[in-house]
Amino acid sequence: MNRRWRERFNPQLEKNSMDSPKQVKTRLNPSVSGSQKRGRFPAGMALFAAAALAFLGGAAGATASEPPPSAREILAMVRANESYQNRNFTGRLRMSGEAGRVIVPFRLLMRGHTITYQFANPPESLVLHLGEKGSSLERTTGSGRARLDGLVRGTDITYEDLALKFLYWNNAKVVGEDSLMTRHCWVVQAVPSGRGDSQYHMVPLSVQKSGGLLKADCYSKGHLAKRFEVRNVQHAAGGYVLKTMRIQRLDAAGKDHSPTYLEINPA
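Above: the chain's sequence. Below: its structure in token form.
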């Protein structure tokens, strides 16, 4: 991150609810169904998972005379608090569907460049390893290493979603600016490094100019497959961290399904 944006960085974020976000209009503008235009689907971060606990950092906004930061600098601001926090959290995934209500509790451990989600009954862990050149995700059960492409314990999100892995893709560019709920945003388009690296081929992210993630739209096979929306943040350890994220799954026809909520609390 260049010196100007490092000096502007401030890990404080306005504490506000995102309960009724408007849909972002970007230069990208892939085809959108009627239900999507009405903004009916919500979505939460990495949600999920990783919980991805998208810690919301902050940076003072740019002045009109200054060029915007690069996509890498913007994503670094979103991830900033995750890289140095050494804390434990409790959390849960919550979903209400046709089969009834699903509640999945977990522990979230942040240790430098490693973020671990721990589940019980049966025991299972999901570990996100962060590095300068990218990140890697590892899932372990009682039987050893396990696949990452399944859904997390009866919810609509995958293990990749939970880890918010798209926040750590290095291939990204700024494609425009917009506003959500009166908040000025950069729109960053991120893509995975390789074809087999993700279930998604493109993710436009709306990032508040103070450094906080507001929304991420995940595209798969040419259609919007999931939408992550930050709904609430909370004050913790001198900064603000994610409290609630809504993650909405959509099928190829644009039909939205019951959302999954990612909820985080300090341990």
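The helical segments are 3-8, 34-37, 71-84, 159-162.
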